[in-house]
Amino acid sequence: MERLFKEKDIKPNELSPLTLAFIGDTVFDLLVRETLICEANRPANDLHNLAVQKVKASAQAGFVEKLLPHLTEKETSVYKRGRNAKSGHLPKNASQSDYHMATGFEALIGYLYLSDEIDRIKELFYIIEA
After folding, report:
1. Mean pLDDT over all residues of the chain?
2. Residue 68 domain-assigned (yes or no)
């Protein structure tokens, strides 16, 4: 995995945490989906249901608990900015706390992706999967 538009000058530090979460959500979803298809050839509906279990807010909140001890100071700061962002959105299938933690998690993934730190994303993903 690598950024598709590296020629575009993006400054992740200047983007809002919700913008980082917007791209981070998709990057994480792609990682989950690729992992699932590498495990086994399954019907698409089964793949979808397994993916949902990993990308839902409550699962991402749990991942944060595993990752926090491994994050750098900068990564923790990005996570907290995302967690504390006011989205104006009320979660329908998650607690408010899980939703905010998931937003922070997605902001971190988006930040790392846009910073072209793909190897770091993989490291964190392996921690989650352990």
Report:
1. 92
2. yes
Residue 10 in domain: no
Annotated catalytic sites, by residue?
A: 25
**CATH classification of the domain holding 84:** 1.10.1520.10
Q: How far apart are CA 21 and CA 48, in angstroms?
A: 21
The tokens describing 59, both together, are 């699962």
pTM of the model: 0.92
pLDDT, mean of each 10-residue run, the chain (130 residues): 79 95 96 93 93 93 94 97 84 84 96 95 92
Its sign, for the CA torsion 41, 121, 51, 21, is: negative
- The residue range of the domain holding 94 is 15-129
Task: Retrieve residue 128's tokens.
Answer: 């989650």
Tracing tokens 């279990």 back to the chain, one arrives at 53
CA dist., res. 121 & res. 17, Å (int): 17
